[in-house]
Amino acid sequence: MPTLKYPRAIEPLWHEWDRKALKCGLRHTVYAVNGDQYTGEWLHNLKHGKGTQVWKRTGAIYRGDWKFGKRDGYGSYSIPDPVTKEHKKVYTGWWKNDQKSGYGVRFYPSGEHYEGEWSDGLRSGWGRMYYRNGSIYEGQWLVDQPNGQGMLRLSNENRYEGSWKDGKKHGPGKFFYLEKGQLFEGIWAADIPQCGILIDFGRDEAPAPPPYPIPKIELADPDGVLAEAQAMFDNSNN
């Protein structure tokens, strides 16, 4: 007796069309409804690999690495100059999950630029900022602000070395007045010096030293002052 063979379920044609339309591996150019354009590699219909994205509304261009539809890896982001219409780089460096992350260089419209580490699109880690007024800050950053240990060198070569918090001098630090040949060492709070000492530092080589050197201040009986302070401290604890 012959064996009956039942026909297999017929697969809808749109399944086959989907497989053929699936962008994977090869380079394709795709236009979005809003006019944005992407040319590059794909994986399962997501931008993945090397590719270039052009945003129609702003004219911005990103060239670099993609991972599952987001900028991830090394790439550069540029925008057109409003006058010349030529593209100028805004950021070149590393990305993660569509945000600046890792080492990169950022160029600002004012002419300032930053080179250093980033996290979640913000300056965080070690970095160097070149300001429009000629000042340079080099040191630690946190959430887009100088935070930790760093040095700010002013355009006149005076500089501050020490602690920072929320973009301001905060904690122990030293300020070198090189044109006067003086050094202030003390404690800052929110950019304001609270206490410290001012001494001559390279006075003979300074271009504009004050007319008189800073006199040395010494205690007549330092051991006695120390003993008295220790006694007052001991009494306050009793």
Automatic annotation (TrEMBL):
Q: Cellular location of this protein?
A: Cytoplasmic vesicle, Secretory vesicle, Acrosome
What keywords does the record list, in alphabetical order?
A: Cytoplasmic vesicle, Repeat
InterPro entries hit by this protein: MORN (IPR003409), MORN3 (IPR052472)
Entry keyword Repeat: yes
Superkingdom to which the source organism belongs: Eukaryota
Instruction: List the GO cellular component terms.
Output: acrosomal vesicle
Gene3D superfamilies, sorted: Histone H3 K4-specific methyltransferase SET7/9 N-terminal domain
Q: Which SMART domains match?
A: MORN
Which Pfam family, giving just one, matches this sequence?
Answer: MORN
What function does this protein fulfil? Assembles a suppression complex (suppresome) by tethering SIRT1 and MDM2 to regulate composite modifications of p53/TP53. Confers both deacetylation-mediated functional inactivation, by SIRT1, and ubiquitination-dependent degradation, by MDM2, of p53/TP53, promoting a proliferative and cell survival behaviors. May play a role in the regulation of spermatogenesis.
Q: What is this protein called?
A: MORN repeat-containing protein 3
What species was this sequence derived from?
Centropus unirufus
